[in-house]
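Question: I have long wanted to understand how a fold can be written as tokens. Here is the record:
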Amino acid sequence: MGNDYVILYIELNVFALILIAIIRYKTFGLTEMVAQKNFAMCIDSQMLFYISDTLYVMVKCGVLPHSNVFIMITKELYFFATTTMCFFWFLYFEYFQNSPFVESRRRMRLSSVLVWIMVVLLMINPFNGMLFYVDADGIYRRGPLFILQYILSYLYVFTTSIRALAGVFDKSRQSKRKTLIRLSIFPILPACAGIGQFIYPQLPLACVVISLSTLVMYLQWIEQMISVDPLTRLNNRKQLNYYYEHTVQNMDDDAVYLLLIDVNKFKSINDMYGHIEGDEALMRVAEALRKGCAKYPYRANIARYGGDEFVILVRADNDRMVEELKTKINTELSALNEKAGAPYDLTISTGAARVVLNKDMHELINQADIQMYKEKKEGKWINRKLHAAGEDFH
């Protein structure tokens, strides 16, 4: 390698390291959610990946004193970091798309098996050189099972990409279609860069491409934080306003309804069982809204309006479909609350107002609010709670 090439390689790696170090610094204080903790862990793995790769190149090119042991250590760290980086990407992507996979701790533990296999292989490798070794002339060589390091790492990346792609065609997840498309495409460029560096080790591709991809995901994360309610993971009021304007502009002759949902006796839940339990109740309501709307024939935009109030914007062929949607949501909520073993009933009251052109959203909210309190006063939600589940939408 020429001196100019070595300088370029090191400069690119340092640039990548500085870039993700800045992103990592920006994540401090923003990583309370499990998904973001995995994002942060992925960045930590990337930093180890860049540092070990840079040190190896500096030793190989004579910038640092040559040492067979040091070369082995840097390559061991490099491939360990590759696997953990892909593993934490996998977890982050699964959390990011609210995959059912992350709901099972057992599946989460099992998913780390490939990491542990890599750890064992790397521990054994210095004694048999099956993955890589340093020959008698002090030159780094690939071992007979070298390809295993890439297979074990990239399985995580391609698995989550395929799972996201499958979600694009899942009717129950159409509200997340754009996000799923991005998630299915995102790993391709870093994976191609890794494969390119596998074929041509002298090309400084991986570090730069991975760091730029991380920047893209970080910006998407920030965008999501701005538009998503942190507790329920539903859209927030800002995003609701956007959806409403978009809906009004494109509704044509479609009948679109705004549903205002209020949790019954929510204050008593907070007073008797505490605010933590109150938050759990709100998250169950949010999940019931998702599940109820997932069974609806048209896409629904769901948002947390504030406190214990939620809003749904949805198309409907007639008023009966709206009533059936209300019943479905209550049925899902009843099942979720029973499954959670909550020591209280958790029910909602819902008011609906039909969206009209040139009508302000707040006017519709007030109209739906009147209907919601009328339902609450008349106790219609009790009838829905007792209504049998399983009806089809017509």
